[in-house]
Amino acid sequence: MKKSLFSIFLVMACIGISLGSGYWLGTANVPEDPYVRENLWCVVTDVVRDDDHSQWNITATFENYGRDDSTILSVYINRKIPTSFVSVHDLPLTVKGHSGSYEQTTVDSRNLLLTMKYGILDIFSNSTIEIIFHSNAGQDYPMLVTLP
Questions:
Q1: Backbone angles phi, psi at 55, to 5 degrees
Q2: Burial readout 17-38 (b: 16 or more C-beta within 10 A, e: otherwise)
Q3: Do 11 and 66 lie in a common domain?
Q4: Which of 21-25, 30-34, 119-123, 138-142 has the lowest mean pLDDT?
Q5: Sheet strand arrangement including 108-117
Q6: In the sheet that 140-146 helps form, which strands lie side by side, from edge to edge?
């Protein structure tokens, strides 16, 4: 009889401690992760076929809605490092953050121009390519672009 009462008391104490610590952890104030800093948005604004120079001109616009500066360090096309037939202008590209509130409506916006020669990387007209922009915080910003 004493063993069963002791077992019941032990189980009830374990349940009480579990509920108490769960409640305490639920009310703990968790600080913002210092490693998640970027809030960079990328939009392809223009894809132009330039027959005079046998190339495509792709313009990507980056907008920074976060508080910290973001820098685009490298670009990959179809998960490959671009060859000499692909030019990425203005790399590294830094987009400034803002120090105001998150409701701020003015953000820093920067353009990045890629020029690709016709026929490189087995890419032709009407094909869809994946462009990945890699930032200094280790974030990748992929996008799909259909070439005219």
A1: -155, 165
A2: eeeeeeeeeeeeeeeeeeeebb
A3: no
A4: 30-34
A5: 40-50, 55-64, 108-117, 86-88
A6: 93-95, 70-77, 128-135, 140-146
Q: Is the pTM of this model over 0.90?
A: no
pLDDT at 30 over 70: no
Judged against a pLDDT cut of 80, whether residue 4 lies above it is answered with no
Residue 35 within a domain: no
CATH of the domain at 94: 2.60.40.10
Domain membership of residue 87 (yes or no) is yes
Q: What is the pLDDT of residue 105?
A: 57
Q: Which residue matches tokens 């508080």?
A: 67
Report the domain count for the chain.
2
Q: Which residues span the domain enclosing 2? A: 1-30
Q: What is the pLDDT of residues 48-100, one digit of tens each?
A: 888 888 888 888 888 887 777 888 888 888 888 877 778 888 788 888 877 66
